[in-house]
Amino acid sequence: MNKTDSLNWSQFKEELVKNPDLNLQFQYAENKWVDASYHITEIKQAPIVSVDCGGVMNSWTEIIVQLWEPENEQQERSMKVSKALSIVAIVEKSLPLNPHGTVKIEFGNSEFDIRQMFPGGFIIDGNNLIVDLRPDAVQCKAITRGGSCGTNDKGEECCTPAPAKQKVELKNLAVAAGSCAPGSGCC
Predict the structure, then answer these.
(1) pTM above threshold 0.85
(2) 134 and 27 in contact (C-beta within 8 Å)?
(3) Residue 66 scores a pLDDT above 60
(4) Closest Cα partner for 141 from 131, 132, 151, 127?
């Protein structure tokens, strides 16, 4: 997870609170928009604990806002930011969200595989607050600590290939009938 390019829950929510009367829209690719009929179906809080290739334990929290496009519902305008905030309030009554949690938006439709994306920024365009979504990238945490992929912070190899398998000698257990005796290796 690239924390330098991500917004935390507090920052994301603050931007919504500043713009309650605008229409909330999401752009998931160049000139590709989540349909105005979308619903916020759930908000998830996911504590992540991992161990990287250098044996270093990492932990963080992700706040995932899931969007769903109904197939046969048509709307000209997307929901108001104030409606999204009312959904947030319902969620936060039952689930206090970590203000430092990294925000991701989960979305997919028939033309775009489901994925979690970062809010790359907010754009105000007329009556619209547009959340510009950007994909995450896989990374090696050892590199971000100043090491290189394949070594830990002590310079020790951590991503080495598995040791070579030992060759096993196969023994022919097929023996002539009647010659199986204890200790002969046939059974």
Answers:
(1) no
(2) no
(3) yes
(4) 151
